[in-house]
């Protein structure tokens, strides 16, 4: 142990190694509701890829587990270290290296937060359009979880914006994959394999991200519906219209009540409409041209009413912003209300009505309370699950995931598997695929030091 | 050999196995200019995934190489079998299984051609927006090469539209990856790994493809420029404008001359402008609204003139269609003119001016004639290389690829490595990445039967 500590100090400098016991409590956990806080043996903060490589060499030689940590905002426990692990925190590698306005890319270190990138891109009239709700999350964490968020219906998720990475392998080799180009057919796409791998294949020390022109005009339409099924039925039609919404979220009445209450939000909806609405659709539009936006807003309002909305309200800018923020923080509202777990299963968007019906059945049968909201445009449902009994809860979750998979879905749309959903993943996923993934893991990490216990046992 | 033949006949039925010597000459080759035609031992046409799996089991047991074949329109020799190989032709698995209008996806068998899919999606007002130039190409081949084409600047390439695959592993296992959803964080993304793997990791027996609403209105602007550098300099500005072109191609004067001549095309450009133009930009726009399209066309014309175009012509529909078709078939024009090889290197689009300057230097120094066109919006340059001397040509190609990589590019943007560009790939690519890719190959295909000789030696 002392050997390892001094070896790490030689690599990153004594100031950048702490014993797990001395490090802040925050390093022991992420935001996952079921994560078990665990202090690692060491918290190490490398300054560059070279130092990261040396840490991995030391780990591989000694068989010491390594867990990467961005901002610890993950919801699957994937950044929670083992007690004997080196936690590699990317807090010092936090620079936006370049905003390339000609190629429309940003080159960032992994510790850069979404908030910083948002500020830097805004200065150049560009935008990194992936908006997972928690802006303190790091780009390294976003890449490793393939983070999504509300704008995915228009722009896709992290995967679609990572053009390249610099990554350190468990062998200590530093590789560069992809680059400032949007396509290639030059061998296997290692970048896409590393995206979403939850720190189990390689450590990302730099990412090249695709940017978009920042469009000047945005507007938000809020449409209350009499029932949840009508909301989710409307979703494919809004997508098919070609209006191309930036955001297309559903929020059930319970969740809307909770987030507006928590955030002291007045939406200006008549009491009587509010009282009879069981769910809401939030549609945000954007355009580079104000007039076109106005036309699209009008068309959206008409469309939503035709699809069964009780009414359609254009929210004033500040209310819209606050509603979106409240929605982004819905996780904390659920946590505050005592939710025992959250899931973010994804399925074909047209299967949402059937899935929501099954959710109600599963909830009732298992005496579990389930409410939620979701990136409806992507078929990504975020449900808060209230059930204190661990066995009953596990049974309900298994049934929810099984139902989603039966309808053509997958366990997680964006939060990842980590520790939290691993049992369900290993239980429900095709064994041939699990075996293949393990062989891929072996190809990257022969000594198995990268985030052991995440994804696989 | 007879054993294998009867075993294959047992699997797919005698009518669907041919000896290589009896099969049509076409099975011995693809469209690659440097591919060496080779008849396989057997040509087998499975009817479904189960039969495909049985073929692979037989191959793995006996160590017999297997090469998948779609339509044989590839340009890298990747579908050219070895003499001792089983060529698995997907000609019988050629059905569009579903056009799902609610989820906006198509489910296809691998032998479906782009042309068939275009017809089927049109019936539903949807479109599969990836348009690699050769519409007789199969979706299986498109997936395996990560095919691109002219519309990638707007919609991305094949990779961005493959939501899931059914694939047969060399172990004979059939797996389903992804599905009718646009995102997931549920283990490694096997779909994205299989896309672009040129038949070396798995055989694709079904693909789930993302569709888009088919927009009603299109227009094409043709802008001649005095010199090539001005054209490629204009490209990032057009992208940055936010106009969002569907197509953004450059065509040099020599190539424009050749394709208009071959296709007997009148563009209606005054002689004097044509004679002084060294390169052209072709910008195609689309919109769901005719008025918006008109405005965008006007804005594009102004922008191009401001960026140095001699003029900007809005092409009448039929001329535009014929110009795009001629551009799609530019490969055959180059072949007809005696080109000895074609390359399709990709690089950051802002590096195009510097790259084009280096191309001229390399061409002159090696006494090689190089002309071209390209998906300029993606930084994907298609060059026809005229040099009869194989050594000189190899040297020139190596220098072209090295220059592209030095400027942040990669060897192939969409055609793939196959046999044709393998020597350059193995020579110029980072050995650590090659070694990692080989370990991944091993994880999928432990007996090494899938397309040996492609990508790796
Ligand atoms: C209020 C709230 C709202 C949220 N909303 C969304 C949402 O809308 N969409 C969404 O997708 N997520 C959302 N999340 C989840 C979370 O923000 C994302 O998962 C985010 O990507 C995590 O980033 P992080 O830096 O905090 O990663 P961490 O939690 O630190 O780590 C997450 C994973 O990434 C790995 N990792 C971190 N850095 C690296 C690196 N450099 N190299 C390799 N692996 C690395 C870790 O080992 C771990 O496996 C939300 C979370 C909260 C608390
Ligand atoms: C005139 C012309 C223009 C072209 N324009 C473009 C262009 O703009 N953009 C572009 O990207 N390409 C272009 N191409 C190249 C070619 O059309 C593409 O590479 C196409 O994807 C090949 O499809 P195919 O069915 O002919 O594949 P094949 O040539 O039959 O095979 C190509 C590769 O895919 C593998 N494969 C085929 N089917 C399967 C399967 N089911 N499972 C696993 N592996 C499989 C083969 O083994 C091989 O490695 C052009 C070609 C021509 C001749």
UniProtKB/TrEMBL annotation, chains A, B:
<keyword id="KW-0285">Flavoprotein</keyword>
<dbReference type="InterPro" id="IPR016171">
    <property type="entry name" value="Vanillyl_alc_oxidase_C-sub2"/>
</dbReference>
<keyword id="KW-0274">FAD</keyword>
<dbReference type="Pfam" id="PF01565">
    <property type="entry name" value="FAD_binding_4"/>
</dbReference>
<dbReference type="InterPro" id="IPR006094">
    <property type="entry name" value="Oxid_FAD_bind_N"/>
</dbReference>
<dbReference type="Pfam" id="PF02913">
    <property type="entry name" value="FAD-oxidase_C"/>
</dbReference>
<dbReference type="InterPro" id="IPR016164">
    <property type="entry name" value="FAD-linked_Oxase-like_C"/>
</dbReference>
<dbReference type="GO" id="GO:0016491">
    <property type="term" value="F:oxidoreductase activity"/>
</dbReference>
<dbReference type="InterPro" id="IPR016169">
    <property type="entry name" value="FAD-bd_PCMH_sub2"/>
</dbReference>
<protein>
    <submittedName>
        <fullName>Oxidoreductase</fullName>
    </submittedName>
</protein>
<keyword id="KW-0560">Oxidoreductase</keyword>
<dbReference type="GO" id="GO:0071949">
    <property type="term" value="F:FAD binding"/>
</dbReference>
<feature type="domain" description="FAD-binding PCMH-type">
    <location>
        <begin position="36"/>
        <end position="214"/>
    </location>
</feature>
<dbReference type="InterPro" id="IPR051914">
    <property type="entry name" value="FAD-linked_OxidoTrans_Type4"/>
</dbReference>
<dbReference type="InterPro" id="IPR036318">
    <property type="entry name" value="FAD-bd_PCMH-like_sf"/>
</dbReference>
<dbReference type="InterPro" id="IPR004113">
    <property type="entry name" value="FAD-bd_oxidored_4_C"/>
</dbReference>
<dbReference type="InterPro" id="IPR016166">
    <property type="entry name" value="FAD-bd_PCMH"/>
</dbReference>
């Amino acid at each position: 142990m002392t050997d390892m500590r001094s070896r790490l100090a030689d690599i990153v400098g004594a100031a950048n190694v702490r014993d797990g016991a001395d490090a802040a409590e925050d390093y022991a956990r992420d935001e996952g509701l079921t994560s078990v806080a665990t202090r690692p043996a060491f918290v190490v903060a490398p300054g560059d890829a070279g130092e990261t490589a040396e840490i991995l060499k030391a780990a591989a030689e000694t068989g010491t587990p390594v867990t990467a940590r961005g901002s610890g905002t993950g919801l699957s426990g994937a950044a929670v270290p083992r007690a004997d692990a080196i936690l590699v925190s990317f807090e010092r590698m936090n620079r936006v290296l370049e905003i390339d306005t000609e190629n429309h890319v940003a080159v960032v270190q992994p510790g850069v937060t979404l908030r910083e990138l948002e500020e830097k891109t805004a200065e150049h009239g560009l935008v990194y359009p992936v908006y997972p709700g928690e802006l303190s999350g790091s780009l390294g964490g976003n890449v490793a979880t393939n983070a999504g968020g509300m704008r995915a219906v228009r722009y896709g998720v992290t995967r679609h914006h990572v053009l390249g990475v610099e990554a350190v392998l468990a062998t200590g080799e530093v590789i560069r994959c992809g680059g400032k180009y949007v396509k290639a057919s030059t061998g296997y796409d290692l970048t896409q394999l590393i995206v979403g791998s939850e720190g189990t294949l390689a450590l990302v020390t730099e990412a090249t991200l695709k940017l978009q022109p920042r469009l000047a005009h945005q507007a938000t339409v809020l449409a209350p519906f009499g029932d949840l099924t009508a909301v989710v039925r409307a979703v494919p039609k809004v997508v098919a219209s070609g209006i191309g919404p930036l955001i297309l979220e559903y929020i059930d009445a319970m969740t809307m009540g909770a987030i507006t209450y928590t955030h002291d939000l007045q939406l200006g909806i008549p009491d009587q409409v509010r009282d009879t609405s069981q769910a809401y659709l939030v549609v945000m539009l954007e355009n580079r041209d104000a007039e076109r936006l106005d036309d699209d807003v009008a068309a959206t309002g008409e469309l939503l009413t035709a699809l069964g909305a009780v009414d359609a309200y254009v929210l004033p800018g500040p209310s819209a912003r606050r509603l979106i923020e409240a929605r982004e923080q819905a996780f904390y509202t659920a946590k505050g209300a005592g939710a025992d777990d959250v899931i973010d299963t994804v399925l074909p968007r047209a299967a949402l009505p059937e899935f929501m019906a099954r959710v109600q059945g599963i909830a009732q049968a298992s005496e579990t309370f389930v409410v939620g909201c979701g990136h409806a445009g992507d078929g990504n449902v975020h449900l808060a699950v209230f059930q204190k009994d661990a066995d009953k809860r596990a049974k309900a979750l298994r049934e929810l995931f099984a139902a989603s998979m039966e309808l053509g879905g997958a366990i997680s749309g964006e939060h990842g598997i980590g520790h939290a959903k691993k049992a369900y993943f290993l239980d429900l996923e095709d064994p041939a695929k699990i075996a293949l993934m393990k062989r891929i893991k072996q190809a990257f990490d022969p000594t198995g030091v990268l985030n052991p216990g995440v994804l696989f046992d």
